[in-house]
């Protein structure tokens, strides 16, 4: 008879409560804002570029600084740095909720991302340091389950807040969560890893590289490849070269070059870049399409991908166990490819929710469920047990960067497709109306396009249909990224050297 697991100690219980509260705020703000973006765009009169930066400002800081944030906690105390992150995040959230203009909101989102980069890596680090080794897996599992529930309910709750109140409450709701976390934080013991130090020059280089590339794509979507876009692209290229040069010489590099000689590590991160890039872009642009083109409420739009989340939560453990027995290669080939089919179905299927979004979300959920746990296992095992934390941290950063870059690049595709579809749809609906060119020129405003007074109802229908067409193009592109992720998994993870399987078996 199996003995009952030992109960958690008070310190372990408080650590779990604090880390769930803090990390849930950061995870929620990575998804909830997508549901509120249509209302933000309408109230603050944002263009596509402005709306994109409401998302990307947060993602950029989190992707670029998450490894430095983890090293900072190791050096100066994980509890201390976690508290800094929660406090910064809370103040920035309040600033987001009170923002009088788009520029202020983007600036506050940037600070929010810095706070998230301090608290996210500290969550698991504190659990790993405080929990007894015999209960550490249980602690991580409880943290993961609680955080997943919060993330699962976040878009629905965020949509409800937008519908019954304002998009501002999506940000303000973080403040009481942060206050509770800070009140409980002194009950968590302090831990650190002497000798750790952040790679600030590396963090600066990758921030400029990612920010410049995202800025170039965003600018090109609104104004074409003008001088500003080309300067941003040049900054990104120079920063990338500097980052690669510095990481080969830094005393404590955030991304040691030797990692990239490991084919499993390269394969899992290539898969992550492609698949999570597609997921990040679709998660942003699908709610805009559902609200702006189909007329759904924010609550309904937030619940649209609930089947994906439920399947992911319910099946990940099962497929993870199968991957442990049979190796991850098959799962990391079939899963991303199936997810790619789900993305593509979002662009191909038409009609109501149950005949278009729901079946696509089910296929997408099955693909992600096949992928997520085997991918995490392969990542953690790619560099061996002693470097599993480094592997996980880099993969987390790659996933964040993937969403940032895909939102910008596919946003460029979205605007170009919308402009063409808007011109064609309006031509069919109103012919050569004198105001048609002026409306087409508003394509960078996405769902906030304004028709002149007296425009016929057919023109409004044409605007909605054009945005649905443009989203369909983006969904098909995301589908291609998913399939390419499956190709990366199949090619770079050969059967004989996948983690957990003896060579030649």
> How much of the sequence is in beta strands?
under 5%
Helix/strand-derived category reads mainly alpha
Give the biggest sheet.
none
Beta strands, count? 0
- Give the H and E element order: HHHHHHHHHHHHHHHHHH
Count of separate DSSP helical elements? 18
CATH architecture assignment of the largest domain: Up-down Bundle
Distance between the termini: 34 Å
**What is the CATH class of the largest domain?**
Mainly Alpha
Mean pLDDT: 85
Q: Find the CATH topology of the largest domain.
A: Growth Hormone, Chain: A
Rg over CA atoms, rounded to whole Å, is: 23 Å
Question: Segments where pLDDT lies below 50 for 5+ residues?
Answer: 496-505
Tell me the overall shape: globular
Q: What is the count of distinct domains?
A: 3
Q: Give the % helix.
A: over 70%
What does the model show?
- Helix content is 77%, strand content 0%.
- It is an all-alpha fold.
- It has three domains: 12-198, Growth Hormone, Chain: A (Up-down Bundle); 199-253; 262-505, Growth Hormone, Chain: A (Up-down Bundle).
- Residues 496-505 have low confidence and may be disordered.
Short description:
The protein has 505 residues and is mainly α. It has helices at 10-29, 32-44, 48-76, 78-98, 102-130, 136-164, 168-172, 174-184, 200-223, 227-247, 263-292, 298-303, 306-326, 329-348, 357-382, 388-430, 436-440, 457-492.
Secondary structure layout plus pairing:
Blueprint: H1 10-29, H2 32-44, H3 48-76, H4 78-98, H5 102-130, H6 136-164, H7 168-172, H8 174-184, H9 200-223, H10 227-247, H11 263-292, H12 298-303, H13 306-326, H14 329-348, H15 357-382, H16 388-430, H17 436-440, H18 457-492
Helix pairs in contact: 1-5, 1-6, 1-8, 2-3, 2-6, 2-11, 3-4, 3-5, 3-9, 3-16, 4-5, 4-8, 6-13, 9-10, 9-16, 11-14, 11-15, 11-16, 11-18, 13-15, 14-15, 14-18, 15-16, 16-18
């Amino acid at each position: 008879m199996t003995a009952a697991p030992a109960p958690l100690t008070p310190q372990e219980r408080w650590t779990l409560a604090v880390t769930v509260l803090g990390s849930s705020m950061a995870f929620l703000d990575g998804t909830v804002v997508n549901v509120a973006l249509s209302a933000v765009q309408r109230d603050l009169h944002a263009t596509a570029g402005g709306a994109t930066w409401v998302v990307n400002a947060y993602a950029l800081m989190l992707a670029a600084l998450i490894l430095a944030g983890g090293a900072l906690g190791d050096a100066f105390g994980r509890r201390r740095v976690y508290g800094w992150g929660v406090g910064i995040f809370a103040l920035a959230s309040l600033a987001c909720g009170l923002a009088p203009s788009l520029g202020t909101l983007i600036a506050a989102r940037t600070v929010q991302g810095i706070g998230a980069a301090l608290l996210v890596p500290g969550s698991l680090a504190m659990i790993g340091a405080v929990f007894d080794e015999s209960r550490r897996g249980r602690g991580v599992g409880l943290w993961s389950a609680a955080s997943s529930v919060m993330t699962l309910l976040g878009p629905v709750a965020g949509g409800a807040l937008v519908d019954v109140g304002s998009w501002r409450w999506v940000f303000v709701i973080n403040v009481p969560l942060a206050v509770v976390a800070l009140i409980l934080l002194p009950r968590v013991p302090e831990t650190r890893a002497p000798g750790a130090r952040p790679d600030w020059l590396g963090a600066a280089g990758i921030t400029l590289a990612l920010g410049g590339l995202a800025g170039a794509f965003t600018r090109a979507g609104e104004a074409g490849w003008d001088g500003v876009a080309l300067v941003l692209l040049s900054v990104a290229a120079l920063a990338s070269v500097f980052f690669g040069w510095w990481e080969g010489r830094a005393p404590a590099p955030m991304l040691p070059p030797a990692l990239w000689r490991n084919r499993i590590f390269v394969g899992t991160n290539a898969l992550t870049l492609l698949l999570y890039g597609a997921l990040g872009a679709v998660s942003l642009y699908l709610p805009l399409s559902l609200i702006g083109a189909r007329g759904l409420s924010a609550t309904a739009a937030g619940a649209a991908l609930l089947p994906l989340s439920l399947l992911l939560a319910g099946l990940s453990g099962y497929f993870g166990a199968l991957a442990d027995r049979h190796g991850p290669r098959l799962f990391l080939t079939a899963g991303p490819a199936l997810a790619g089919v789900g993305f593509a179905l979002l662009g191909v299927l038409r009609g109501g929710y149950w005949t278009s979004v729901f079946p696509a979300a089910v296929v997408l959920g099955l693909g992600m469920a096949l992928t997520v746990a085997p991918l995490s296992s392969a990542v953690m095992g790619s560099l061996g047990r002693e470097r599993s934390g480094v592997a996980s941290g880099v993969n987390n950063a790659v996933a964040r960067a993937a969403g940032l870059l895909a939102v910008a690049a596919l946003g460029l595709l979205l605007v170009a497709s919308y402009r063409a579809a808007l011109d064609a749809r309006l031509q069919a609906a109103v012919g050569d109306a004198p105001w048609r060119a002026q409306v087409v020129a508003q394509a960078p405003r996405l769902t906030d396009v304004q028709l002149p007074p007296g425009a016929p109802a057919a023109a409004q229908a044409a605007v909605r249909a054009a945005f649905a067409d443009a989203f369909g193009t983006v969904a098909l592109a995301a589908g291609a990224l998913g399939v390419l992720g499956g190709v990366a998994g199949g090619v770079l993870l050969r059967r004989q050297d996948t983690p957990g399987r003896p060579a030649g078996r």
